[in-house]
Write a structure and sequence with these properties.
Layout (H helix, E strand, L loop, with lengths): L23 H5 L5 H6 L5 H9 L20 H9 L7 H11 L3 H9 L19 H8 L2 H9 L13 H7 L3 H9 L15 H7 L3 H9 L14 H8 L2 H8 L15 H8 L2 H9 L14 H8 L2 H9 L14 H7 L3 H9 L12 H8 L3 H9 L1 H6 L4 H14 L4 H20 L5
Helix pairs in contact: 4-5, 5-6, 5-7, 7-8, 7-9, 9-10, 9-11, 10-12, 11-12, 11-13, 13-14, 13-15, 14-16, 15-16, 15-17, 16-18, 17-18, 17-19, 18-20, 19-20, 19-21, 21-22, 21-24, 22-25, 24-25
Length: 434
């Protein structure tokens, strides 16, 4: 079995990654071009929400994110260029419209009329601007790219622009990638506050064909974002199995972490990507490392509700009772998110129930999440049955408070009422009912 190459320092910094917010132009055309915009994003709906609105999913702290790239479709670019509100010169607007339509004759005419092949369009993430070449790459039109490059378009673009290789990686355009590389594109180009590279973007788009071209052309498989997220971690986050296989063949640093101490195993577990997790564990990645908060991959998998990831980690010796700085265990994380199957698996593996003389924290989490099935399995356990008599009165009080606070959420109230009935039955059975 391969031994992991050492490297990667766990920083004490939180490592909050930058928010991603749409430009004014993207927002203006969002409703009309939803389907077109979606077609360019090979990711899940949570990631799309993060891209378009800068939303951090509930339960996922800012230090548990990977930078997201969003580029508008060529159709959106064309509509923006034609809008009366656009601020670019008319000659440049004609170039963008022609490129978006993949009309080489119109592109040549627009350039002859004074359009700049290196002109900058509207801004996207990190204030970077779009170029005609970047839009040509997005369309996949090699002919349009050749016209622009022959007219002097810069293959790496201005420092303030989105690199064309970003667009090739994002839209998974291997032919365009080959043209750009042949014309001298920098395969390790970085831009923006997060320091994304084309290879990191290929991880997001699940594009193994472009990733292979980049690696064969000298892309650094270890090059991380400004917050320490490596391509291997990004592939784990996005669940990009083909790209991960490529990266594992390039001797990645399995011990590298981002600035908050997360590695690929943690990210794969948090996102529930069992196949990526399996590949990492087979490559001898550590199943039981903790981040700077003391949270392990098992806790992340318990929180995400991935029973497959939980099983993989337990089979590799992950500790079911490990606690973070906050004192919370994987079982508590599962109870707090009502992942009952995960709770059962952890209990089968010997996880303790978090019972003390004065507190039963796991039961508290089940109550607060309004999870009747979690309460049932805790009370049915041998340890729970013995401890219940000392904690049911408090649980009943907590449920009543939760019902009051959730009065405007009928579904939650219904679950809490069911929880209340379970507790009342247990109190009566143990002689604690009145």
């Amino acid at each position: 079995m391969r031994q992991p190459r050492r490297g990667g320092v766990i920083s004490s910094e939180g490592g909050r990654l930058p928010e991603v917010r749409p430009s004014v132009e993207e927002t203006a055309f969002f409703q009309e071009d939803w389907q077109m915009h979606m077609s360019g994003l090979q990711t899940n709906i949570v990631a799309v929400a993060m891209v378009l609105f800068g939303i951090v999913p509930v339960g996922h702290g800012g230090s548990e994110e990977v930078p997201v790239l969003s580029l508008p479709s060529p159709q959106v670019v064309a509509k923006t260029a034609q809008s009366p509100q656009q601020s670019m010169p008319a000659s440049l607007a004609k170039v963008f419209v022609a490129v978006a339509a993949s009309d080489t004759m119109a592109i040549r005419q627009a350039l002859q009329d004074g359009g700049d092949p290196n002109g900058l369009g509207f801004r996207v993430r990190d204030g970077l601007q779009l170029t005609p070449l970047g839009i040509a790459v997005s369309t996949g039109s090699i002919a349009s790219m050749e016209v622009l490059l022959d007219a002097g378009a810069r293959v790496n673009s201005e420092a303030s622009a989105v690199p064309p290789l970003w667009a090739a990686s994002f839209q998974c355009k291997p032919a365009a990638t080959s043209v750009l590389i042949a014309r001298g594109a920098n395969v390790n180009i970085r831009r923006g506050r997060s320091g994304l590279t084309p290879l990191l973007i290929a991880c997001q788009s699940h594009c193994s064909s472009v990733a292979r071209l980049l690696l064969e052309s000298g892309a650094d498989p270890h090059a991380a974002t400004m917050d320490g997220v490596t391509p291997l971690m990004a592939a784990a986050w996005w669940g990009s199995v083909p790209v991960m296989r490529l990266l594992l063949a390039h001797d990645p640093d399995l011990l590298a972490t981002d600035h908050a101490g997360h590695d690929g195993v943690y990210f794969a577990s948090l996102r529930g990507h069992a196949e990526c997790l399996r590949l990492l564990l087979e490559a001898s990645a550590d199943a039981d490392r903790a981040n700077v908060e003391g949270w392990t991959a098992l806790r992340a998998a318990a929180r995400s509700g991935s029973i497959s990831c939980v099983e993989l980690l337990l089979n590799q010796g992950a500790d079911p009772d490990t606690t973070g700085r906050d004192g919370r265990t994987p079982l508590q994380a599962a109870a707090a998110h009502c992942h009952v199957d995960v709770m059962k698996k952890l209990m089968e593996a010997g996880a303790t129930l978090g019972i003390s003389r004065d507190n039963w924290t796991t039961l508290d989490d089940a109550v607060q999440s309004g999870c009747p099935d979690a309460i049932r399995i805790l009370l049915k356990s041998e340890a729970g049955a013995h401890a219940a008599v000392n904690h049911l009165d408090r649980a009943a009080s907590d449920i009543q408070r939760e019902i009051y606070q959730a009065e405007h959420a009928p579904a939650m109230v219904a679950r809490l009422v069911e929880c209340k009935a379970i507790i009342a039955e247990a109190r009566a059975r143990l002689g604690g009912g009145h």
